[in-house]
Structures are given as C-alpha cells and as structure tokens.
Amino acid sequence: MKTWIKGFFSLTLVFAPLLMAQVSPIHIDATTKLKTYGNKIITTDGKPDSPAVTLGDVIVMALETPLTTDKDLTPADKFQHDALARKLYGSDGKLKTDVILTLDEVKLIKDRVGEAYGAQVIGAVWPLLDASEKPAGN
Hints:
Layout: H1 2-22, E1 26-28, H2 55-64, H3 75-86, E2 99-101, H4 103-116, H5 119-129
Antiparallel strand pairs: 1-2
Helix pairs in contact: 2-3, 2-4, 4-5
C-alpha cells in the first residue's frame, strides 16, 4: 500500500506542472496595434494616417457581428459573446492593456475571428492570443 501511495504522489509531482500550464489564464493587451506580414500597422481604411486597428477592435467585431454560422446560436450564446466583448473594456470605456482570458475564451475568439476575417487579420491576431500560433518564417 505504501508503494502505491508513494508512486501516486511521484506521478502527481511530475504531471502537476503540465496540468497547471493548461489552465493558466492568458493575458492579452487589447490595445495592441495589428501589423501586416510586412510589419506595417493595419489601419481602418488602409491609409497610413488613419487610425490603427487594434486586437480589441477585431475581437469585439468578431464577437458582436452576426455571422452566417450563427443560425443555431441561442440567446445565451449571444449574451456570452457580448459579455466577453465587454470584458475588453475598462470602466473608462477604453480598451484594456491587460485582459485575462481563459482557454475557452481564447478558443471562442479564435473561432470567431477565423470565421469573420480573412487570412491577413487571422495571421495578425492568432499569434497574439496563442504563442504557439506563429506564422511560417517567424
């Protein structure tokens, strides 16, 4: 019996860091300006003097915009999307520089951005949400 307990605790010590890493929250800066593959700032209308598109801008639009894939969303799902979008803003009405997201929230955001936007925006956003999502060549 003692050997079994000792083995269990040994395994727990080995795997605990891996389990904890999977549930660690992800911190993002919603004010991060998105960049193209040429490292140029993406702007609202493509002109250099126009306002920059931020990570928060894209996430909010992806969560709030009705998509063709949304026909089966319940009102509760839509409420969840809106609550997550509002999480990006502070009480001052400005995008936050430190937003804490769960893995499920990151997955939802990646799915929504993937449905709502083209390759360039996906390529700019996904690596900011998930460090393992680096474009080829980086």
